[in-house]
Design brief:
The protein is of the alpha/beta class. The protein has a single domain, classed as Double Stranded RNA Binding Domain (2-Layer Sandwich), CATH 3.30.160. It has six helices and seven strands, in the order αββααβαβαβββα. Strands 1, 2, 3, 4, 5, 6 and 7 form a seven-stranded mixed sheet that branches. The longest helix is centred in the last third of the chain and has 29 residues.
Amino acid sequence: MKILLSLMALLLVGTGYAQKAEDLFASGNTKVSWLGIDFSHVKLIGQFAQFGSAGEKNATQIKSVYFPGWNNLIPDEREKYDVAGMLRKDKVFYDLDMITAINANAPTEALETHNAPQYSREDIEKFISSYNTSGKEGIGVLFVAEALNKASTEAWFHFVAINMTTKEILIHDRLRGEPSGIGIRNYWAGAIHDVITQISKNRYRDWKSQFAQE
């Protein structure tokens, strides 16, 4: 009996470690979780806080109010910010606790800057390596925010799908979002929505042709 249980445990661990990019496109039982938007490395560029009647917001206010506000939009308004539809899934689990904690602890000293960072895949791998995914399984999907650039009217996000057991990046893509809307919250939420729409209409198909098995 002990031998059988040990073999089953090894099988489960092996299955977790064997998660591949193609599993995101398969119709099997792979658990897919939306982890949120990691703003801990984002840069705010230009006259970011100047939004008419919205008034000026300092970096601490942006972190404490808008980082969670933008993250909560996706589970709160699931029909508009349709992550499940974006990934062609009947069901996606929402697991925001880890990213919420990361954003809450993000430093604000270098949040506002004049230069866009243009993070590489290696940069994203470094960010992901610090995540605590203990006890999580399946595939985790998230956006890593790179820049909210008021000067050039654009936002940049990295779509990342990871093996939750190993933290290996399975799929990575850097995407430009076009902001829209009135007020700080809605303006940059428009960029998030734009990126979700791009993935749903175009990028998902491109990823599937690249990673999915025939």
